Amino acid sequence: xxxxxxxxxxxxxxxxxxxxxxxxxxxFLSRDNLFRFxxxxxxxxxxxxxxTAPDYADASAWAIPPHKGDGVSIFVVTPTVYWGxxxxxxxxxxxxxxxxxxxTAIPNWAGPFQNLGSVSVPLYRSASLFSFLTVRSDARGxxxxxxxxxxxxxxxxxxxxxxxxxxxxxxxxxxxxHILGLLQDRFYDPYLxxxxxxxxxxDQAVPLDLFDTQIKGVKPCQTSNExxxxxxxxxxxxxxxxxxxxxxxxxxxxxxxxxxxQTAGRPLAxxxxxxxxxxxxxxxxxxxxxxxxxxxLEWGTAPAPMAAQTSAQCTGGVLIVEQPKSRALRKxxxxxxxxxxxxxxxxxxxxxxxxxxxxxxxxxxxxxEGRLAPPFENSxxxxxxxxxxxxxx
Length: 393
Prior knowledge:
Layout: H1 5-29, H2 31-39, E1 62-64, E2 73-77, H3 95-109, E3 118-122, H4 137-159, E4 167-172, H5 174-185, H6 190-193, E5 196-202, E6 219-220, E7 229-233, E8 235-236, H7 241-250, E9 252-254, E10 260-262, E11 312-315, E12 318-321, H8 348-369
Parallel strand pairs: 2-3, 2-4, 4-5, 5-7, 6-7, 8-12
Antiparallel strand pairs: 1-3, 9-10, 11-12
Helix pairs in contact: 4-5
């Protein structure tokens, strides 16, 4: 018995719909693995030819170049703007990463510091987002290459500032990892460390054991009245359990030999940006000075912060926050978004106020305690000489 044509069409349509639903469900459940697969360069880093290195003596190697002055010098390292797929590291002239840099990263993550002094933001061959989703040696090589650029940029930054005023360091996500490297490789120098108003290491895990080993002389800010300390946190809502585990257990930081090691099992530092301290007390919504979705704003344009959007509390090495009332301060729904840096800054106004206070704190400390004597630029050689008697003595 032949089935009527209309029934055949109906069953075919139902079968097609079922197949689409099945494939959609599979894609949704496998979306993280799919994102990784699509952004894997599939080139061994040992044979990879990286993009041309920046020359930081040239202003074109900077998104915002440094310049001499007698005020506060602010060095900002931006988060990841290239997801991967073809390269391990970001080409400096790649159109989409550059658009993300100027449209999203700089307004949201350098913006809080723009009215506090001279801001410098280097272009650098940042490691791709994919390199932060795997612990393969290729990914570690990509991150190390990115850090070499940041280190060179910072040395050029120092050479192009006055060498006297306060310094603020700020880095978000990948940028935070590289700021940790600078604290290890440059701020062991007491003459440089005394100029540090604060270092902001945001959305990057910072194990407490670092402060007893390679980052000596700098500690997490225990109160809002300190300077020469670190403000660091990774902010999550309580239901973001996968993200919290990835942050606490699978993040990587530099060891004393400059190698990347995981944070698994290591207690993490957390400084509440609302309180400006390591306190584990809850900062209620009423204390939140304001988040901002500054994406698309031109440099020099201040956003209108949205206050009282979230509470904040340091718990177990992470900052637990509420879901903000404004949708502009929530992660957008897009493929791989939970791996990407936020296109907003939940604590924009809090960070701006904190940095202003840290600068005042440093100025007060210097006024009360003075500064270290500068090291001798030219040494004198002492030559042994025979003691001769005084005539007639």
